[in-house]
Amino acid sequence: MIDDFGLMELDLDKYRDLFEVLDTRDGRKSTVGISQFPASTWFDMFADNTYADACLTCITNKHHMCRLEMNGINMRETE
Fold first, then answer.
1. What is the pLDDT of residues 48-66, one digit of tens each?
2. Which residues contact 53 (CB under 8 A, 6 or more apart)?
3. Which residues pair with 58 in a beta bridge?
4. Which of 73, 69, 76, 75 is nearest to 36 (CA)?
5. What is the sign of the dihedral through the CA atoms of 74, 75, 78 and 79?
6. Cα 31 from Cα 77, distance rounded (Å)
7. How far is residue 36's CA from residue 18's CA, in Å, rounded to a whole number?
8. For the chain, which residues score pLDDT lower than 70?
């Protein structure tokens, strides 16, 4: 599970680590990604376009992807 994707900047080593995880799991294991940001903004979160292409291809363009967009009250604010 990749939780809160996009909340912090990643350096090149972390991009590489993310790609290794996604590539290793690609087609073999399920990967759940959670982000507060729309998927249309994910590419811009990467400082390196090569890793952006590679990682997002693993996430969005292959196999089965189910995307749920949640709208409503912020449950963190109600606690």
1. 899 999 998 888 776 667 7
2. none
3. none
4. 69
5. negative
6. 28
7. 18
8. 62-64, 79
Do 65 and 39 touch, CB atoms closer than 8 A?
Answer: no
pLDDT of residue 20: 95
The token pair that represents 27 in the structure block: 């087609």
Angstrom CA distances, 11 to 2, 29, 42, 46, 71, stand at 17, 25, 15, 9, 31
**At a CB cut-off of 8 Å and minimum separation 6, what does 9 contact?**
47
pLDDT of residue 13: 93
CA distances from 57 to 42, 43, 70, 76, 79 (A): 12, 10, 23, 31, 37
Single-letter amino acid, residue 32 = V
The widest CA-to-CA distance across the chain, in whole angstroms, is 40
Residue 33 backbone phi and psi in degrees, to 5:
-120, 135
Number of H helices, E strands in the chain: 3, 0
